Amino acid sequence: MAATAGIAGAVATHRLDDGLRRLGVEPRPESDPGDRRLVARARADAQALITLATEAEAPRDVITALNQQRDALPTTLPDASGVTGELAAACRTVATARAADSLAAVSSDVAQVLASMAAGLAQCADRVADR
Amino acid sequence: MSARREAALIAWLALEREAVWFFPYAGARVTRIAGDARKAAAAHAAARDRLLGLVRDDTTTVQPTYDVGTIDSVAGASAAARLLERRVQAACLAVVAASSGASREVGVTGLQVAALAELGWSGRARAFPGMAD
Q1: Interface-testing mutation among A116, A121, A126, A131, with chain B (most B C-beta atoms within 10 A)
Q2: Contact (CB, 8 A) for A11 and B128
Q3: Phi and psi at residue B8, in whole multiples of 5°?
Q4: What's the pLDDT band for A2 if we cut at 50, 70, 90?
Q5: Is the dihedral of CA B95, B6, A33, A100 positive or negative?
Q6: ipTM of the prediction
Q7: Given CB atoms, is A69 within the 8 Å cutoff of chain B?
Q8: Are B89 and B130 in contact (CB under 8 A)?
Q9: Which of A1, A112, A122 sits opposite B93 (nearest CB)?
Q10: How many CB atoms sit inside 10 A of residue B9's CB?
């Protein structure tokens, strides 16, 4: 998942200059604090979902996807997740949050990562609910 | 609307047109998936119509046929369907990239719809739908 790793690295360090210039956007000298908070929350939620998925003995692809999401996100800021409860519902709740965060993100790259995570979490929710 | 967003929406629209062609074709070739293919075709037709309302100038063309390989089994049809839904996901993510703020919503929503559609064709959950593996 080289592309994701590259994007995650970009989120971490905001070495997005080349990508942003290709998009016609002048790069910011530093990452947006709000975006860093969104990424931190996304990582914390992913960790919380991994815990729930492991306890629920979720399908392997779900656990793999959640781990990949967490591992792709840098630990820019410490954060805690309030995600609890039944796994499918929790995945849906977090998917909704990531979709909303995608609209709120300043960086286009962060918006894409969060939107993609939302779609992956929606898949996880359906996979768990279909068991 | 920026030229980039318009181009991204048109690219997505072209894929929805392909899907509107593909699913009835696949359903006709593999009758066991005909029901699901009908539903998928209807969903993609609705998406096409929504996009037609968003683009300023529809420069896509309806092709008489598309290169989807040999469709002669449930597995083959499902694989082709998953691939098409993944291409739609990538197109939706491009719309997100070309948009800002609330205008990203159409891409974000389309991406989720396509991700769930992929799952419906015997897909597996993936961490980052729309992004290159």
Answers
A1: A116
A2: no
A3: -65, -40
A4: very low
A5: negative
A6: 0.95
A7: yes
A8: yes
A9: A112
A10: 26
